[in-house]
Structure formats: C-alpha cells, structure tokens
Design brief:
Elements (H helix, E strand, L loop, with lengths): L7 H10 L4 H28 L4 H24 L6 H5 L6
Helix pairs in contact: 1-2, 1-3, 2-3
C-alpha cells in the first residue's frame, strides 16, 4: 500500500489562492505540510500497531485525506477570507 500525501496538493493550492502576504503564505505551507505528513505517519503507525482494525483505519485515513486539507486551510485563514454574503446582510464575521 502506498501512502503518498496527495492531500498536500489541494492544501497548497488553497493557500496559494488565498490573498495573504507571501511571508505568511510560506509559513502556512510549511506548517500545514508538516501537519499533513504527521497525520499520514500517525495513520501508518496505527495501521501497523492495530492490524485487526487496519481496514477501518484506512477508511478514517481516506476521509481525513479528503477533508483534512480543507479543514486545515480554513483553520489557518478563516480571518482572511472575505464573506461577501454575510457582510452584505450586515453580519460581522470577525
């Protein structure tokens, strides 16, 4: 089984598309890449240590592999993202 951290691609693309300064962008890419790699390594270690539930762990990894980059991006830049539909209604999201 190959565990390539392919979830780095959408995470880096989301960070690159977010309008933030380049110094912060590089810091977030570095920190997010480390967290994604740690997530992958933790799942690999858990699968080897708990062989009897390796299939269930693989499903958790598959869900996390799809959701984790988006959740991580949102956690990093939620204050920088403009919410036009909410601000048009007069709601303050900050």
């Amino acid at each position: 089984m190959i565990y390539l951290p392919m979830n780095l691609v959408p995470f880096i693309a989301l960070i690159m598309a977010t309008p933030i300064d380049n110094k912060r962008r590089l810091k977030l890419i570095f920190l997010g890449s480390i967290l994604i790699l740690l997530f992958t390594l933790v799942v690999i270690v858990l699968q080897f240590n708990f062989i009897s539930v390796a299939g269930e762990l693989f499903y958790i990894y598959a869900i996390g592999r799809a959701a984790f980059p988006f959740l991580l991006w949102f956690a990093f830049v939620y204050k920088d993202v403009n919410y036009p539909s909410l601000t048009a209604r007069g709601l303050n999201v900050n």
